[in-house]
Specification:
The chain is built from two helices and 14 strands; from the N terminus they run ββββββββββββαββα. By secondary structure, it is mainly beta. Strands 1, 4, 6, 7, 8, 10, 12, 13 and 14 form a nine-stranded antiparallel beta sheet that branches. Strands 5-11-9 form a three-stranded antiparallel beta sheet, with no helix packed on it. Strands 2-3 form a two-stranded antiparallel ribbon.
Length: 161
C-alpha cells in the first residue's frame, strides 16, 4: 500500500522545512500520492480521533491497533478532509480522507507516523518491530519508521495467519 505514495521526507534527522538552518527529528514520513490525493489506511484498527489538532497537525486522523495486547497509534496529519469518524473500524486500503496542507505544513502531503507508549513492557512484537533499528524513543513513546513498521506488520500478520 505504501508503494502508491512518494516519500518526500524520511523518518529521522532532517532540516526543519520552515527553518532550514535548524535540525529536527522527523517522527514519521511525509508522503504524497501524485495521481490521487485520496488517503488510504495502512493498518487495521479503530479511529481514535478525527479532528483538528492543536499542535500543527491540522486536520488529522489517529487510529489505534491492538497487536497482542499492545496499542499502536497511527497518525495521518495535514488532511484536507477526514472521511471517517471516531469509533469507525478501519481496514488496510480503506479510503479515510483526502491529503491536504492544513496545520503547520508546506505543500499537500500526509505526515504519517506510528508509535506505541508501551516501550517499557517486554513484548516480542515490540522487539520484532524494533529489530530493524528504525525507531526513536521520545517522551515515553517509541516512534517507528512507518515504511519499515508496515512491512514488518504485514509479515507478522502473515506469519500468524
Amino acid at each position: 500500500m505504501i508503494d502508491k505514495y512518494r516519500i518526500t521526507s524520511k523518518f529521522g534527522n532532517r532540516n526543519d522545512p520552515f527553518e532550514p538552518s535548524q535540525k529536527e527529528f522527523h517522527t514519521g514520513i511525509d508522503i504524497v500520492n501524485d495521481t490521487d490525493l485520496s488517503l488510504y489506511a495502512f493498518i487495521n484498527g479503530f479511529c481514535r480521533r478525527a479532528r483538528w489538532g492543536n499542535f500543527g497537525e491540522g486536520k488529522y486522523i489517529q487510529t489505534v491497533t491492538d497487536i497482542h495486547g499492545i496499542k499502536y497509534y497511527t497518525n495521518y496529519f495535514h488532511n484536507q478532509e477526514n472521511w471517517i469518524i471516531e469509533g469507525d473500524l478501519v481496514q488496510i486500503g480503506d479510503k479515510i480522507g483526502i491529503q491536504g496542507q492544513t496545520g503547520y505544513s508546506k505543500g499537500i502531503h500526509t505526515h504519517l507516523e506510528i508509535f506505541t507508549m508501551s516501550y517499557n513492557m517486554p513484548n516480542d512484537d515490540i522487539k520484532y518491530f524494533m529489530r530493524n533499528r528504525r525507531y526513536k524513543i521520545i517522551a515515553k513513546r517509541i516512534f517507528f519508521d512507518p515504511q519499515y513498521f508496515f512491512e514488518s506488520y504485514m509479515r507478522l500478520m502473515n506469519d500468524n495467519g
